[in-house]
């Protein structure tokens, strides 16, 4: 489906960039009120919100230094990345957002959480307030809204203190506060970690036709991270019919931790200049003065309107300053001068708005002192309650790690109603057998028809059908809204999948080779795997990451690895690795319907294998159920993926030449692992060999060996053996590669030695 011709064009010329606005806003509160852009009551809300944030942060300082002790024996633990001085940004942003708009936040995110919840509560009706409040007592409050504000602050502080009543049940702490009810998709302690997540959320918002925007709040240091480039390029792709509704809001407080953006770790004066690299309108980039809440508010009003008009993505750099150090222990003396700090503190956003309110006659100095004291006392009382809240109990350690739900039963509203073309009927032979790759395609087709929330994307998956032609033809059926090509950006592929899954889609993303997944390790291991548990188990992540493993084709060290053990090491991800066409269809359909992230590994050498495959949209295979591939009585061999063919060949030779009966077990899923079936087999035979294609050290075969010894030790007649690749990168030369991958001969040797022990 060729749509764009790329012709040889090389006429002389030059590339010009549009100007990027710097500090254009110059209005005062008096001007804004006179123009009807803000009321005094609205300005007072901004002021009070900043006071709450500042007093919240000062309380964190007092807790961590021991200046405030909520009860005898209290000991503060946890991170303290403070927001003092930057309050105008959180308050200015959130005052403009609707309750249902989304944000992602940073490790310095207490202020974002407080402000997002606060302004969302201002917009809630009584029913929404009651739902938000749950069992929180309201008798002593003048209104539900007043109670909700206290409950919100309590949950934020309780989370920071690691309490069960915290927003994330104490699983995330202060660097990972999330509240999905108010659109807070979570703070992120990995610098730049939320770039792709927010971008995926914006993609999901657009594809679902939601009237919402996404604000990706990041620090200046994050702009030097690779995921920043991947995400902003992703959001700027011309294939989107409308611009993604996302603003990347840089809180440039001048320092990453101690490294200075200007004059030290970058080559530019303003980070907004980066916008020129992504589209022809510079991402509508601008730099604003972030020490004035009215400036931030004015900018965000324009941003939100533009995003809803399809003019995203947008890049905003806010010049701001953290008055305190990187954390409470950092005094800032090693990298900041007193002159610099004093100059910035003279621009204090709280003091600025206070003075403007006094000038307008809306406050007196005494009023301002009273407002601050009200905020201080509120935070103090909330902190006492939070400190005395419930500690999580160890027996609930695993709560929230995995969702127990699936999309097996969905309503008609989720069915795909219109197809561009009648789906292909994949051929089965007279024995009901079909190609492995066609079984994958059939599963994808059926699930995309069954559930319109399922989208497929990755490198070259659309017109070309992927490196192994697995997705060929899906574009003709579903169009580019449902299947599309991506940049070569593995981290963004995985991270946007997470964000899209959090906001209502069910993405199936492809990483062409598992070797390339190392480019996405942060997004996979720190984001996808941890998000549900870290955010209190309050959302689902229906994300499938399809990938392939190679070996046997001479592709050498960067296209032939078997890295399943690396991903299995991250709690929170399920790992599936089928070895037959029968299994790949049933397991893939289960993966797509699962409400948890799944790494789905297909071996390239299996794509042209044939096997019997059941028909029907409801054919699935449950996870955690191993398959007895071959029954036997003398020894158990556990293997998965393509290497199982060598194991079966060895078993046939042993039966024929030695009269040895080998039982072969295929786990099918590594996480969850069906150790019961494996142990039952080993308990029967008394001997076990585990085979995989990965190197021996740290292999998943070694883990299975350990599990066998834990569960079947008293029945073992010999040590469990592991047959694996050598501890070398996969070699290209044919003799070396054939020796490296466990051969029939090497498997035979190990089985015989185990039998003769």
Would you write up a description of this structure?
With 757 residues, this protein is of the alpha/beta class. It has three domains: 29-387, Rossmann fold, CATH 3.40.50; 412-612, Rossmann fold (3-Layer(aba) Sandwich), CATH 3.40.50; 627-755, Rossmann fold (3-Layer(aba) Sandwich). The chain is 38% helix and 13% strand. The strands form four sheets. Strands 9-8-10-11-13-12-18 form a seven-stranded mixed beta sheet, sandwiched between helices. A six-stranded parallel beta sheet has the order 2-1-3-4-6-5, with helices on both faces. The chain has a five-stranded mixed beta sheet with strand order 15-17-16-19-20, sandwiched between helices. Strand 12 (574-576), helix 19 (581-593) and strand 13 form a beta-alpha-beta unit. Helix 2 packs antiparallel against helix 12 (349-359), helix 3 packs parallel to helix 4 and helix 6 (144-160) crosses helix 13 (365-387). It is globular, with a radius of gyration of 29 Å. It starts with 28 loop residues before the first helix and ends with a helix.
